Amino acid sequence: MTKACKNYIDGRFVDADGKDVIEVLNPANAQVVGVAPDSGAADVEAAVAAAKRAQPAWEKLPPIARATLLRQISARIRANVDRLARRITLEQGKVLSLAQLEVAFTADYIDYMAEWARRIEGEIVSSDRPGESVFLFRQPIGVTAGILPWNFPFFLIARKVAPALVTGNTIVIKSSEETPLNAIDFADLLADTEIPPGVINILSGRGASTGHALSAHKDVDLVSFTGSVRTGINIMEAASKNLTRVNLELGGKAPAIVLADADLELAAKAIYDSRVLNTGQLCNCAERIYVEKSVVEKFSALVTAHMKATTYGDPMADASVSMGPLINEAGLKKVSALVDKAKASGAQVLTGGRVADRGKGHHYEPTVLVGCRSGMDIMSQEIFGPVLPIQAIDGIDEGIALANDSEYGLTSSIFTRNINSALQASRELRFGETYVNREHFEAMQGFHAGRRKSGIGGTDGKHGLYAYMETHIVYMQG
Ligand code: NAD
Fold first, then answer.
1. 372 among known catalytic residues
2. Is 285 a catalytic residue?
3. For 418-467, what is each residue's pLDDT tens digit?
4. Could you tell me the distance, in angstroms and rounded to a whole number, from the CA of residue 254 to the centre of ligand 1?
5. Which stretches of 259-323 are DSSP H helices?
6. CB-CB contact of 230 with 43 (8 Å)
7. Looking at CB atoms within 10 Å, which of 23, 43, 72, 228 has the fewest?
């Protein structure tokens, strides 16, 4: 049973210090679906103190014992997939099948990170002196903070918690004010495990108050943040007062390059999938499409056919829809303004292009725009909605140059049957990730990291795991 409107601190559900609450709206119909604490500085203080008290004993446990406890969480998640998925759909708006996938993936991710327990390695380094041994130990950083966005809210808890815990850190999670209820559900599952009190603490609250207090706290040793560039900068500023480490997973404006020799049907389907998944609210999915001139008409027609066939609406009222609403009114206004501005600058609408007529929810029509040009905001700013802007290019060199000309550098893709073009793109695209002939979506054993304003550090796989550890060199004279 969910402990509504409470934080989870030191192994217990507790009331927040302040009296204010956050009302959570269902983005599909703007109805209130729950309330969560609006935590203040005293709540942050209590959570960080609990994490600090718990950390030394947690670090002393052998990694495999920590992994066994982590697996208790994944087992609890697997036993509650449908209930958890319904909660995510209700407060975030993604279709139920995607929410179920998110929950199942979360359990798999925890197990994947738990498997690293026996694989964390140090190094023995050669010495300049006779009789000396030089050891590099990997040690936990200490108390970590995980500050979350709303787009994959449940999975993002595990993406922070699992690598932090298996490496011996403790953590304070702050959920997004848009989607705090699934994090309270996560805390509910923790209460049924043997994870010691204080190892995982979960707070609800707003960014400027709770998030800021956590980022600026002197006893937080690492802030791992996923969210927008603007907030990343704020967090870095707050963390800088204590020289606290930051790991920032920020926004994206992913280019997809489609060359004339590509399998156009495959490209259209992969790019379409990438754009409507989670109603286009993904940091890593194709946001600007560069298509070689000779095939731009054919490609645009193929992708428009997919967009036109997309059913959308309230996923709780109609489980058959393939796309839900945008997260909130601000998101809807942003998408709408970008499309209107592109139209005014000469882009043509092949389908969509308007706020959808679906009652009080935040629904936008699946949209394809052609005739887009560099310099239009729609080709440079993050849209975060079901809109595909297409620009014609002369060939691969222009495609790569336009792709790289962006303040974002998270993911990118190329569609081609020519291995030399694929290799050229692999060498020359300046992004953390490149996908060749497939949709944009990373694997847990990879490394998800952005360049330029898309972030600092990274997550997933071995390199993401070691982001939660620091080194200790010991010189031992025998
Ligand atoms: P956001 O930056 O508005 O909010 C994210 C979190 O930061 C929330 O919990 C919020 O309360 C908190 N926050 C806000 N101001 C703060 C402050 N001053 N100090 C501390 N915390 C603060 O982002 P969002 O709208 O929730 O998420 C969408 C953004 O996240 C998009 O830009 C998207 O690209 C990005 N994103 C990136 C990745 C990635 O892996 N790179 C993954 C998912 C989402």
1. no
2. no
3. 999 999 999 999 999 999 999 998 999 999 999 999 999 999 999 999 99
4. 17
5. 264-276, 296-308
6. no
7. 23
